[in-house]
Amino acid sequence: DTEVTQTPKHLVMGMTNKKSLKCEQHMGHRAMYWYKQKAKKPPELMFVYSYEKLSINESVPSRFSPECPNSSLLNLHLHALQPEDSALYLCASSQTDRDTEAFFGQGTRLTVV
Amino acid sequence: GEDVEQSLFLSVREGDSSVINCTYTDSSSTYLYWYKQEPGAGLQLLTYIFSNMDMKQDQRLTVLLNKKDKHLSLRIADTQTGDSAIYFCAESIYGNNRLAFGKGNQVVVIP
Q1: Average pLDDT over residues B12-36
Q2: Minimal Cα–Cα distance from B107 to chain A, Å?
């Protein structure tokens, strides 16, 4: 199983809503990542978790709150988002945070209205 | 810092070869990657090259690295319609798994 599974595939939320994006992998990887990708732009790193601890936060606004409940799961909690936060949110994992190969999920297409 | 540049659009006929180029600025980059992204989908790692290599071939894909010019290219032989996608080059520095992506190059394969 070399899959990174993200749910939901699509999400529409209002600016006052609270929602969560989920990411799961069963490859035994100990590093997991959240990237944000705006339309026609490259992905930009948001967070890195290494061994279930947050190791990198790329100055992401606090309305995005990551959580790593265990080594297989990574969540991104969303609250009070703005329309400009609409994007494709990609989860990735790798063996460790110093590993060469990262596997990406299919992404969650988020629209904030 | 890491700064990766790519050209934007390439149209190629099915069966021809396509070449996508990328330049990077960080000379301490250790690994350079090519990712493929089909419409509405996530990123698929196609191949990567270690910075002490000049070339890597994997089936229809050939990666060339010119360290002196900080130039990376991806050649796709016998391009097929399923190769239509956006291709991103990316770099990382050993010990730091932040990936810095180029702007991406859209490849459209014409049947």
Answers
A1: 87
A2: 13
